[in-house]
Amino acid sequence: MKKAMVYGAGLSGLGAENLLKEIGYEVLLVDDGKAMSSEEALKYLEGISLFIKSPGIPYTKLVKEADKAGIEIIDELELAYREVSKEKTPPKLIAVTGTNGKTTVTTKIKEMLQFAGKRCEYAGNIGKSFAQLTLDIKDGRVLDYIVLEMSSYQLENLKEFRADISMVINLAPDHLDRYNSAKEYYDTKLNIAMNQTIGDIFILNIDSSEIIKRLSRISANKFIVSKNNSAADIHCSNGRVVSEEGIIAEAEKFALKGEHNLENMLFILAVGRLTGVTDEVMREFLYNTNSLEHRMEEFLRVDNTLFVNDSKGTNIESTLMAVEAYKDPIVVCGGVDKKLDLKPLIEGLKGRCKGIYLIGEIGDGLEEQLTEAGYPAEKIYNGKTLERVVEKMAEQVDVSEKQVILLSPATASFDQFKNYLERGNTFKRLIIEHFEKGEKE
């Protein structure tokens, strides 16, 4: 029997384990917290023919030793792709990546295609693993489309993977604790298009200079989107989204507001066009769809104070977009130190924020740079944890004032939380506990 090693026992790893067993592998599961340790696993590399590395795991000693031993190293998405492509009628794959907006775009493409009557599901960096969804298909589930949200980590070990439609929404510096440079991070993102041919489609954002620099990486037919360039297949003009056939939608009527969401809408509309969804159906969907939980989620209003959960704001650019969407917000910021240049964040926060509350391992550095940049020290509270921050906020904030309190961390959550979901849910719970209680008393 063939043997495989799966490194990581999260959703991705467990999905890979289940799929490998289904197709006849003996599987050794490795996880330093939940299964065999990576140190112990070094003894069992002999005889392993396939090594599945979960995306969040860095290139540790075990991974390097597997590579030295000549074992093929892939990730769960590559494994699932190889299996789902063997189906008699495989679903079309729509692959989504980018620094910002990929969860919104992935989710809304899936919802729009379902709204249009197409059989569609999402997987990858959102929802269930691609491997688990592949098992569902092997068990008889029929899908027309699968929309895959793909992080840079998930794009590192692709070999055969090929999407029918792919896109890189935008690029901005991120994850420099993982990559040696922004260039390396950007190049990894473009792996999403590396096996596409002229029969496939890449949705090209010509407003992104970093994507344009990498056009040589794209062999697929290009469908072009832009917020301002009339040469694009879909672009914005006088508050409308238009194509050469005419007006597609009125931008002001989109249910999801903000300049960043306008960019997202262009990609969603492009997919609609490419999959045969009528403009009428796209308009009805996008004029009425709801915002996502944890992405600029306005979850509570107490008196004149609005509370917004933007825990999905895990990089500098996404937080700056969130801050710009509100007038003089009080911002909760901080988390993992990704080794990024914080100057753009500091400049963006200091002129727009009524107050700043800091959490996480990056909090001290943010406090130091904010004060050096001239932001008043008395408007900063470095509470380290969300619990202390919300407690202090409850003491200091007068909810009768018209204001916005915004959690938008600008970085990842892993120093204190399992993921951004847990961070956002904790924030909402603490705010409700401290502010709804205060209002009733």
CATH fold annotation of the largest domain: UDP-N-acetylmuramoyl-L-alanine:D-glutamate ligase
* Total domains: 3
> What's the level 1 CATH class of the largest domain?
Alpha Beta
The percent range for strand residues is 15-25%
SS-derived structural category? alpha/beta
Mean pLDDT: 94
CATH superfamily of the largest domain: Mur-like, catalytic domain
CATH architecture of the largest domain: 3-Layer(aba) Sandwich
Globular, elongated, flat, extended or rod-shaped: what is the shape?
A: globular
Distance between the first and last residues' Cα: 67 Å
Explain what this protein looks like in three dimensions.
- It is globular and about 65 Å long.
- The strands form 3 sheets. It has a 9-stranded mixed beta sheet with strand order 6-7-5-8-9-10-11-12-13. The protein has a 6-stranded mixed beta sheet with strand order 14-15-19-16-17-18, with helices on both faces.
- The protein has 15 helices and 19 strands.
- Helix 1 packs parallel to helix 4 (76-84), helix 1 packs parallel to helix 6 and helix 4 packs parallel to helix 6 (130-138).
- It has 3 domains: 3-74, 3-Layer(aba) Sandwich (Rossmann fold), CATH 3.40.50.720; 78-286, UDP-N-acetylmuramoyl-L-alanine:D-glutamate ligase (3-Layer(aba) Sandwich), CATH 3.40.1190; 297-440, Alpha-Beta Complex (Protein-Tyrosine Phosphatase, Chain A).
- The protein has helices spanning 11-22, 38-41, 61-68, 76-84, 102-115, 130-138, 182-189, 209-212, 259-274, 279-286, 316-324, 343-350, 363-372, 386-396, 420-440; strands at residues 3-7, 26-30, 50-53, 72-74, 92-97, 120-124, 145-149, 165-168, 201-205, 221-226, 234-237, 240-243, 246-250, 297-302, 305-309, 330-333, 355-359, 380-384, 403-407.
- It starts with a strand and ends with a helix.
- By secondary structure, it is α/β, with parallel strands linked by helices.
- 34% of the residues lie in helices and 21% in strands.
- Strand 12 (240-243) and strand 13 (246-250) form a beta hairpin.
